[in-house]
């Protein structure tokens, strides 16, 4: 099952609203086939593993199948995987996590058992569920899974006193962030970040895809000459605003920007409404790379699911130097936004502290 999980990760970033899934076929203590869901609309992991098995000249009949997620039992972009498993003569299926998609939800396992196939559930269940936490969140809520990411110094600064922030972390951490940009469907920043840094918000790693760019711009003040606007025809770009000036909106639309208009929420873009609209458009995950004010607004709106904090072994100092989260803050320590399932990882010279946000 761990090998199946490794395979599943190879599809990360390419499966859109589908889960990442890996599968391994074992017969007489030998791996005779492997596969994973490579891309949205492509073969699922089970069919890939069966195809690999046959390409090796092996017979899958009587083999055991290890799969990280319950096999599907419905027609979508591809035929049901249960059909392929049954026709191949698989004798035993080991399942990591149940698929909570209402179209499956245990029906795939039942169908296999009805055909006399032995099924063992819950193999590395917690790990398999965690691997697809983005998919499960989106299926259950129809809202994007939001990961807040920032880099700071040991004294909690995201920029020097002069406002300079390139670069706080080292090359290894920055490469990992670009990998995240590939893995997540969208990337979101505020207008202040665009005005200050004129970023591209793309992925600069080979064989990766660019995320959908989402800019929260309450009054439509980002420059038309900014790189984000100028390249909107090349990279899907959404500007969320409260501005209803149609002439102003058309100026951005001429460059290929899509405009989403929301009501005000404390004088800013209504982030809850924005998430509903993004989710309806199939954007199942968002990497939040905003500034301190947008980070606070996102926390206050309750849209953040996970935090990735990169800590560099540096000290900036400066009473007025910015920290990762601004706003009015909480009144008491007990009111803090807390992380659960924390994990710590060395990334080059930096430290990554990550965890899911605990519901208040």
Give keywords.
360 residues; alpha/beta; Cytidine Deaminase, domain 2; Dihydrofolate Reductase, subunit A; 2 domains; nine-stranded mixed sheet; five-stranded mixed sheet; 12 helices
Description:
The chain is α/β, with parallel strands linked by helices and 360 residues long. It has 2 domains: 139 residues, Cytidine Deaminase, domain 2; 215 residues, Dihydrofolate Reductase, subunit A, CATH 3.40.430. It has 12 helices and 16 strands. The protein is elongated. The two termini are 34 Å apart.
CATH topology of the largest domain: Dihydrofolate Reductase, subunit A
Q: Termini distance? A: 34 Å
Specify the CATH homologous superfamily of the largest domain.
Dihydrofolate Reductase, subunit A
Tell me what the CATH architecture of the largest domain is.
Answer: 3-Layer(aba) Sandwich
Nearest-integer average pLDDT = 94
- Biggest pleated sheet: 9 strands, mixed
Gyration radius (Cα, Å) is 23 Å
Supply the CATH class of the largest domain: Alpha Beta
The helix-strand sequence is HEEHEHEHEHHEHEHEHEHEEEHEHEEE
Shape: elongated
Number of strands: 16
Biggest sheet strand line-up? 10-9-8-7-13-6-14-16-15
């Amino acid at each position: 099952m761990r090998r199946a999980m490794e395979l599943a990760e190879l599809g990360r970033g390419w499966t859109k609203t589908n889960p990442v899934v890996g599968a391994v076929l074992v017969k007489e203590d030998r791996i005779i086939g492997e596969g994973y869901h490579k891309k949205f609309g492509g073969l699922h992991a089970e069919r890939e593993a069966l195809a690999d098995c046959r390409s090796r000249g092996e017979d899958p009949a009587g083999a055991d199948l290890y799969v990280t997620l319950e096999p599907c039992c419905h027609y979508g972009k591809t035929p049901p995987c249960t059909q392929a498993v049954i026709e191949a003569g698989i004798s035993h299926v080991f399942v990591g996590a149940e698929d909570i998609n209402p179209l499956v939800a245990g029906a795939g396992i039942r169908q296999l058992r009805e055909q006399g196939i032995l099924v063992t559930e819950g193999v590395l269940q917690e790990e398999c569920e965690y691997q697809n936490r983005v998919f499960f969140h989106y299926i259950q809520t129809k809202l994007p899974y939001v990961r807040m990411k920032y880099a700071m110094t040991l004294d909690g600064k995201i920029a020097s006193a002069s406002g300079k922030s390139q670069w706080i972390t080292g090359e290894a951490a920055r490469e990992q962030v670009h990998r995240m940009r590939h893995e997540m469907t969208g990337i979101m920043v505020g207008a202040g970040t665009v005005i200050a840094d004129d970023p591209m918000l793309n992925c600069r790693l080979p064989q990766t895809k660019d995320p959908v760019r989402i800019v929260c711009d309450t009054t439509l003040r980002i420059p038309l000459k900014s790189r984000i606007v100028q390249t909107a025809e090349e990279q899907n770009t959404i500007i969320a605003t409260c501005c209803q000036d149609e002439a102003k909106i058309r100026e951005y639309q001429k460059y290929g920007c899509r405009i989403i208009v929301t009501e005000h929420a404390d004088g800013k873009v209504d982030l809850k409404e924005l998430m509903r609209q993004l989710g309806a458009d199939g954007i199942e995950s968002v990497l939040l790379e905003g500034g301190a004010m947008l980070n606070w607004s996102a926390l206050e709106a309750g849209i953040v699911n996970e935090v990735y904090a990169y800590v560099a072994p540096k000290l900036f100092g400066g009473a007025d130097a910015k920290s990762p989260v601004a706003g009015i803050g909480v009144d008491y320590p007990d009111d803090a936004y807390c992380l659960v399932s924390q994990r710590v990882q060395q990334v080059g010279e930096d430290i990554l502290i990550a965890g899911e946000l605990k519901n208040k």
